[in-house]
């Protein structure tokens, strides 16, 4: 069953790391949008919450999401997050089918 997958992540970045973070996130977004399973990848700074950013990702199916998580540029970005973040990120995995996240493991 191919069910579209969504990821919503909220990241919290140290003020002095914001410029470097935004540059790396722009690069990550551009690379991710070229992935075969990616439908959309956008991010926004949170208004009124300095250093907070929301990422919204949309993939064709579980295979597209797995492909994304296996990419070296994502692994590199996640490693860099350790030095940029002020607290742990919040990540939500969503799907149109309530059982879809379990079905595709």
UniProtKB/TrEMBL annotation:
Domain spans labelled ABM: 5-93
Keyword line: Monooxygenase, Oxidoreductase
Gene3D superfamilies in the cross-refs: 3.30.70.100
Highest taxon, organism lineage: Bacteria
Any Pfam family the entry gives: ABM
Stretches assigned to coiled coil: none
MF-aspect GO terms: monooxygenase activity
InterPro entries: ABM_dom, AI-2_Isomerase_LsrG, Dimeric_a/b-barrel
PANTHER family noted in UniProt: ABM DOMAIN-CONTAINING PROTEIN, QUINOL MONOOXYGENASE YGIN-RELATED
UniProt protein name: Antibiotic biosynthesis monooxygenase
Species of the source: Chitinophaga oryzae
């Amino acid at each position: 069953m191919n069910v579209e997958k969504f990821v919503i992540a909220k990241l919290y970045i140290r003020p002095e790391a914001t410029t470097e973070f935004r540059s790396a996130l722009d690069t990550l977004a551009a690379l991710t949008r070229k992935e075969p399973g990616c439908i959309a990848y956008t991010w926004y700074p949170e208004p009124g919450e300095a250093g907070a950013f929301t990422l919204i990702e949309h993939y064709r199916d579980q295979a597209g999401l797995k492909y994304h998580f296996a990419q070296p540029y994502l692994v590199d970005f996640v490693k860099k997050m350790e030095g940029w973040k002020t607290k742990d990120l919040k990540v939500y995995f969503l799907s149109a089918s309530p059982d879809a996240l379990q079905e595709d493991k």
